[in-house]
Amino acid sequence: MVQVMCAQRTKLRRAEILAAASEVFRAKGFHAAGMRDIAARLDVAVGKLYYWFPSKEALLAFCQEDCLTRLLAMIAVAEEEHVTAVDALRALIRGHLRCLNAEVPGSLAHLETESLSSTDRPRILRQRRRYEEAVTAVIARGVRKGELQVKDARVAACVLLGALNWTVKWWRPDGRLGLDALAEAMADQLVDGLCVRGPARKRRRK
Amino acid sequence: MVQVMCAQRTKLRRAEILAAASEVFRAKGFHAAGMRDIAARLDVAVGKLYYWFPSKEALLAFCQEDCLTRLLAMIAVAEEEHVTAVDALRALIRGHLRCLNAEVPGSLAHLETESLSSTDRPRILRQRRRYEEAVTAVIARGVRKGELQVKDARVAACVLLGALNWTVKWWRPDGRLGLDALAEAMADQLVDGLCVRGPARKRRRK
DNA sequence: GTAGGATCTGAACCATGGTTCAAGTGATGT
DNA sequence: ACATCACTTGAACCATGGTTCAGATCCTAC
Question: Do A32 and B191 touch (CB under 8 A)?
Fold first, then answer.
């Protein structure tokens, strides 16, 4: 009874801290961000951070894990809800952008994994790999079904994820382009391509 | 006479240091990389670095400027040598990948500009903007000529550059995929798109 | 050979920033 | 009221790492 309330409160405190940490990490990068910056954003003392988390690195690890968990959940739903690979891909693009750019806590995601050296690094990398393989699988399915054309689904996934991840470097919520509009534009560009292809026009090169 | 030799030697020394710095920056990130790491890679004392460059940040600035200069030269050539926007775009993709991943000194390019706070930051950002606008211009030209289809050429350029820049995070020279093969795969994917479009098939959505 | 400049060394300096901890605050149960 | 415990504070500690500098070394000119 009392424990339940405490558990909720605990989760809340930790979530608040994670959200602030995530924002600061994202704005300045992991190394440039200081614990004092994070504390200042919450208007609390540094010591508080260490009451709820063991270290700065743990803060990053929690951020990343949180984001990866949401990405994995998102892609599972995308696969389930759409029959064609093309539709699943478009849903994936929208979902990925939301995870990184809208749902704040942990938004810097699997970027900066180099900064992790502790015990939880392998676990995070494993999760990231699982996600990458899920994306690869969607593309591979599209190729099998004749919906998509790529030489190497794994490389195609890296390229796609690169374009999506890079948005954290340039997209800003207060810009003229909303997140959903961006998602649609990116889906058009990445799925359909930039090039106008006339009827019956063949692919360039072999 | 003597001055000429000195000038050459000076350039050589600085280039050696820049190359080492670039590799370390790239491997560990700007903040995580230490001056002692860079010195160790060259097997010299830290003091040497400060004889040739005023600070660590200057090292980063020189790296970035060097890379941006090469990118700007590259895109000028690409524009000149190819009549169609599609061909220019494919050349640009290949050239960008080479600048970032092959021609070592300065390869981390315009990434990590947040880390610059000194006097040369605005200059670097201006150059980067010039490059981005050159890329945007190629795309816009393609749209005007009816070769390409995008709503917003600027956004399309960001997406394209994002996919290209992200390669520094995952592509490795010793992998099974060579740089030129990667360039071709990326050009196919980004220019032509992932989706197979049958003859006369319309774009999804409006 | 020797003076003088250019170049290099590495130990020491010092600010930054992650981390710790002893002490304070406030709520809860008795 | 009082004891207890969860929670918070912020000053202090200390390792890291950018930077400096006094001296060593090397090279060129005379």
Answer: no
Quick one: tokens of A203?
């692919």
Contact between A194 and B153 (Cβ < 8 Å): no
Nearest nucleotide by C1' position to the B49 CA atom: C8
Token couple for B179 = 């740089």
Q: Which of residues 49-78 of A touch strand C (CB under 7 A)?
A: 50, 54-57
* Bridge partner residues of A84 (DSSP): none
Both tokens assigned to A51: 């009451």
Interface predicted TM-score (ipTM): 0.88
**Between residues B176 and A1, the one the model is more confident about:** B176
> Does the C-beta of A47 come within 7 A of strand C?
yes
CATH number of the structural domain A61-192? 1.10.357.10
Band of residue A5 on the pLDDT scale cut at 50, 70, 90:
low
Neighbours of A148 (CB within 10 A): 24
CA dihedral sign, ordered B138, B140, B142, B147: positive
Cβ pair A194:B150 closer than 8 A: yes
Cα–Cα distances in Å, from A127 out to A110, A124, B21, B59? 9, 5, 32, 35
Task: For residue B162, report the phi and psi dihedrals to the nearest 5 degrees.
Answer: -60, -50
- Å between CA of A31 and C1' of D4: 40
Reduced to 3 states (helix: H, G, I; strand: E, B; else coil), residue A83 is coil
Dihedral pair phi/psi, residue B148, rounded to 5°: -120, 160
What is the distance between the alpha carbons of residues B163 and A161, in angstroms, rounded to a whole number?
A: 8
CA distance A17 to A19: 5
Contacts of B29 in chain A (CB under 8 A): 29, 31, 112, 114-115
Neighbours of A98 (CB within 10 A): 17
CB B101 within 8 Å of CB B183:
no
* Helix (H) and strand (E) counts in chain A: 8, 0
The confidence score (pLDDT) of residue A119 equals: 80
Chain B residues in contact with A34 by the CB 8 A cut-off are none
- Going by C-alpha positions, the residue among B89, B202, B203 that lies closest to residue B145 is B89
| Beta strand extents in B43-179 (DSSP E only) | none
